[in-house]
Amino acid sequence: LRRTIGYFSGVNFIVGSIVGSGIFISPGGVLAYSCLNVGIALTIWAVCGLLSMLGALCYAELGSSLPSSGGEYYYIKRGLGSIPAFIFLWTLTVFIKPASIAAKALTFAEYAIQPFYPGCFAPELAKKSTAIAAVIILGTVNALSVKWATWIQNVFTVLKIIALAIIVIGGLVLLILGRTENLMNAFVGGVPNVSQIGEAFYQGIFAYGGWNVLNYVTEELKNPSKNIPRCIMIAVPCVIVFFLLVNISYLTVMTPREMMSSGMFFKIII
Fold first, then answer.
1. DSSP letters along 101-120, please?
2. 10 Å Cβ neighbour count for 134?
3. In the chain, which residues have pLDDT < 50?
4. Residue 267 placed within a domain
């Protein structure tokens, strides 16, 4: 394979894979399962980020030591043999990945076509058709050209970061102006039980999904032994800080109950 992915593209690849529909649909779910306790919800976001960072560092070591594409499939095959690797890959491609892609595509479609239907909900057929079209187009581009896929990834990553940066800056400005009523007494509220905490973590971990993507394209990465750890150690902490700031910004303009009813609560059943 041609090594066409450099350091900047590698960072964009990780950030673009993590920053997606999760940050738009998970905040309401984390708050709901945290019993509308803002402090607990923000703590869960931070701990989910820490867990993701620990996993990413393990993958950085694996990618540096075993510089072959394939991610978990290659590591399981190397360590346990072909049959466990095949079972893992079959489960991933038949059940897990399609469900995850479908959830992300439907979320994209929800936000993409809603402006064309002001004052009412967008038709379900239009949302599903848009989601299907997005999956087909992106799948075709990835199959035809790594260079084009990388370029599109970079462009959309920059656009997503700009959109979230606008949200963060707006929230920080409101905080400076004294809009802090939703963050005052952050830990006042209900206390979730063990089951609810598990559900909240599931919602948060979903939003951080994608920290392991660079290991799937190791053979297409320039100087993987150096770039994999460097990309991970830059990209994942930046995403953690960004997600926390975005959640704080959401809470400067909306109450927890408003966040739950604003479309930011998508029950993840993947």
1. HHHHHHHHHHHHHGGGSTTS
2. 17
3. 264-270
4. no
